[in-house]
Amino acid sequence: MSRRHVVLGLVSTAASWPRRVESWSTSGTVPVSIRYCPSIEHLHALLRSGQRRAVLLDGDLPMVDRDLLSAVTAAGGIALVVEGNRRRREWDQLGASAVLPTSFDERQLLAAIEPLMGSGGFTGRVPAGK
User: Are 5 and 24 in contact (CB under 8 A)?
Assistant: First the structure.
């Protein structure tokens, strides 16, 4: 697991989980470099680069919808929705590759980005506490 994968993020300022992800990235606990996008347009531009990437999406953002999830998948990416506190949706039915609870831990993130590491086809909702 020495290779670091770039994970893109689109988050609200109210979300607390980005600080955890940054901490895991900095400490090397999770082999990712996180790159937060300031806008949806910036995210789309990075997706067009042709590199397969995981994208962490804040489920509270109004622009996170079926179209965005489809765009991530069409670009060969893995759409990971972090459940929000204000919006409740059936993200897996809308096309999310995985759904993470707000309090997800390192193991849950690793399981969700596993397809980037070439070891399989994780799909679905990540159980809380696993």
Answer: no
Gap between the Cα atoms of 48 and 40, Å rounded: 12
Find, among 51, 79, 84, 52, the residue nearest to 67 by Cα. Answer: 79
Q: What is the pLDDT of residues 24-33, one digit of tens each?
A: 999 999 988 8
Q: What is the DSSP annotation of 20-68?
A: HHHHHHHHTSS-EEEEE-SSHHHHHHHHTT----EEEEETTSTT-SHHH
Quote the tokens at residue 124: 């679905």
Residue-wise pLDDT tens digits, 36-74:
999 999 999 999 987 888 999 999 999 999 999 999 999
Instruction: Give the whole-angstrom CA distance, residue 47 versus residue 73.
Output: 10
pTM comes to 0.84
C-alpha–C-alpha distance, residues 63 and 58, integer Å: 9
